[in-house]
Design goal:
Structural class: mainly beta
Distance between the termini: 45 Å
Helix content: 10-25%
Strand content: over 45%
CATH class of the largest domain: Mainly Beta
Mean pLDDT: 90
Number of helices: 4
Strand order of the largest sheet: 1-2-5-4-3-6
Largest sheet: 6 strands, antiparallel, barrel
CATH superfamily of the largest domain: RimM
Low-confidence stretches: none
Number of domains: 2
CATH architecture of the largest domain: Beta Barrel
Oligomer: single chain
Order of helices and strands: HEEHEEEHEHEEEEEE
Number of strands: 12
């Protein structure tokens, strides 16, 4: 990876990915990674990066609106369908300091990914995915090719240390 892009990404957090082009005027579908509306509502300038293409650049958002099944974004200087097609698959990043403050026991997903999970002191694996169920999130924890689902509920999770990347849980009584 380009050292300049690597340095930029250290200060950024992904909030979504660019999907297919919508219409003829350069709008693109935006698949959002967050359920915090303030992040999306205040977008102005974002960093787009594609690991696959090895490219990254800053773009200003000209407009945003709700589409039929997603949020539609329009970037400055991308005025045709052909212009916007090159953006497909790029992840959208914002500066970490632009994220709204969270309350106690609230975390951004990117803080939880790759955390080691310990159940009563035993390492049961790393967080590889997070499933939104509506009532609570469920962590997908993987170790040695096996996955385990861990509900993020107060009675089960004892500690989340995002700086050390550790989550401590207790064994459920019914197990």
């Amino acid at each position: 990876m380009n050292p300049r892009i690597e340095k930029i990404l250290e200060e950024m957090v992904p909030i979504g990915v660019i999907g297919k082009v919508h219409g003829l005027k350069g709008e693109v579908r935006f698949v959002v990674f967050t359920n915090v509306p303030e992040i999306i509502e205040n977008l102005d300038e974002v960093f787009l990066y594609s690991e696959e293409k090895g490219r990254g650049f800053f773009l200003r958002i000209e407009g945003m609106r709700l589409g039929p099944k997603s949020i539609l974004l329009k970037f400055e200087e991308f005025d045709t369908r052909e212009d916007a097609e090159v953006l497909e698959g790029f992840k959208v990043y914002i500066r970490r300091d632009e994220l709204p403050e969270l309350g106690e026991n609230e975390y951004y997903y990117e803080e939880i990914y790759d955390c080691e999970v310990y159940e009563d002191g035993e390492d049961i694996g790393k967080v590889v995915d997070i499933i939104e169920t509506g009532s609570n999130e469920v962590l997908v924890v993987e170790k040695d090719g096996k996955e385990r689902l861990v509900p993020m509920i107060k009675d089960y999770v004892e500690e989340v240390d995002t700086e050390k990347k550790i989550i401590r849980i207790r064994k459920m009584e019914w197990i």
